[in-house]
Design goal:
Helices cover 20% and strands 35% of the residues. By secondary structure, it is α+β, with helices and mostly antiparallel strands. The model is unreliable at 50-75 (pLDDT under 50).
Length: 208
C-alpha cells in the first residue's frame, strides 16, 4: 500500500509459512554443530555481531552468538542430533506486536533418545534503533509433544531444554536503510524503515 511520503508493506504469516515449507526442513536430520555453522554464516551475511549504534547491548558485541552453555565435564565434545518434525517443523505466527516462532523437533544428546520430541515456542519483538531494525527474543517455552495436559507444570527435562535454548538466543539486527543496489537513483536519499507493527496475522513495515 502506498503512503503519502512512502510505502507501507503488509506481509501475512501465510506467505512466511509457505516460504518456510519450501526450505526442506520437514523430516530433516542434522546436528547442533551443523546448525551453528549455518547460523554463523547467516549472521555474517546480515551483519549481526557488529553494531554502529552507541549504547547497543553488549550481547551483540561481547558474547558470541554461537556460544554454547556449559556442559558437565567430559561431555563437551558431544553432538546433539536434531530431527525436525515431518509435518510441521517450523511455523511463524504473528500476533499483536510480537512474532512467534514455533519449532517442533526431537533433540537427541549424543545420538540418544533420552527425551521425547519437543515443541519450542520463541516470542520475538521488533525494536528500531538509530540505524538498525532489531528482533529481540523473549523467554522460550518448551513443551513435550507427548504431554496429555498442555497446561501442566513443566517437567525437569522441559526446563533443562528451555534453559539451553534461552542461553543461545541473541538479538538479530538488520540495517534500517534499504540496500543501495535496490535504490539506484542518484542524488536521492536511500529509503529506510520508519516503523514496524503487527496484529492478527499481519506484519506491517513502513518505508520512507
Amino acid at each position: 500500500a502506498e503512503r503519502k511520503n512512502g510505502l507501507r508493506l503488509s506481509i501475512h504469516e501465510s506467505l512466511m509459512n509457505t516460504i518456510i515449507d519450501r526450505t526442506g526442513l520437514k523430516g530433516l536430520k542434522t546436528t547442533d554443530k551443523k546448525l551453528r555453522e549455518l547460523e554463523k554464516s547467516l549472521l555474517t551475511l546480515t551483519g549481526n555481531g557488529r553494531s554502529d549504534d552507541a549504547g547497543d547491548s553488549p550481547t551483540l558485541t561481547e558474547k558470541s552468538p554461537l556460544a554454547a552453555p556449559d556442559f558437565p565435564a567430559g561431555t563437551e565434545g558431544f553432538e546433539t542430533d536434531i530431527e525436525f518434525d515431518e509435518v510441521d517443523p517450523l511455523t511463524v505466527r504473528i500476533e499483536k506486536d510480537r512474532l512467534l516462532v514455533i519449532l517442533k523437533a526431537h533433540f537427541k544428546p549424543a545420538g540418544q533418545a533420552l527425551m521425547p520430541p519437543m515443541t519450542v515456542t520463541i516470542p520475538y519483538q521488533t525494536e528500531l534503533t538509530a540505524t538498525k531494525m532489531r528482533l529481540v527474543a523473549g523467554k522460550p517455552r518448551v513443551v513435550s509433544q507427548e504431554r496429555t495436559d498442555p497446561n501442566a507444570p513443566q517437567t525437569i527435562v522441559e526446563m533443562a531444554v528451555e534453559k539451553v535454548i534461552e542461553a543461545d538466543l541473541i538479538p538479530l539486527e538488520f540495517d534500517r536503510s534499504l540496500p543501495a543496489a535496490m535504490w539506484p537513483a542518484n542524488g536521492t536519499a536511500i529509503p529506510r524503515i520508519t516503523s514496524i507493527s503487527s496484529d492478527n496475522g499481519w506484519l506491517h513495515i513502513s518505508v520512507e
